[in-house]
Amino acid sequence: MSRILSLLLVLIVAGCAGLFYAAPIISFADVRSSCQSQDIDALAKLIDFDTVRISLKAQLDAGDKGLAAPAPSALNDPVGATGSAFKNVADSVGKAINDMVNPNAVKAPARPVIDVNSYLTPKAILGLTYGEAKDANTFEPSAFEGKPPSPKVAFFSLERARLTVTDEIHGTTTFTFERHGLTHWELVHIGLPTAESEAMKANPAG
Hints:
By secondary structure, the chain is an alpha+beta fold. It has helices at residues 2-36, 40-46, 49-62, 78-101, 122-129, 195-202, and strands spanning 152-156, 160-167, 171-180, 184-191.
């Protein structure tokens, strides 16, 4: 009898562990399903729109060059912060002088302003989960052919999980989920593919 109880306990623990590990994948599938059904209330519970909006805007503004590390903190790194401030001033002065010396110089075209909210509609979010990356804001589900790509677990911890979706044309998009409660996982970040990140995957060092 004790062996049966022990086996039952092991099965229960294994089942709970499996469910815990699968929870972010289930949340990812729930995001897709809610997008397909245009269920805004469900999406509001599955996605932290404020943090996702901030992260997407920063990536879209940065373009293919990718994001840089945050500027040095004046509190933790006063020397680095001072140097960064002087560099910014020097760059601004240099640009002003160059504009005066070369008033007719051909200027680089201004980067078009991208509305980050166009990536946060149910249709666009669905496109992101399909790997459409920066083309997600023009994604049309009815025009999509084939089977949607399945997410893969790239990282998993007790508090955070990262799932990736890879598209042959657009590259790999990363979805970061944070745990809230025992089994509820919320989408807090969407990492768009960059030219550099895809090149590194194609040609790994060593």
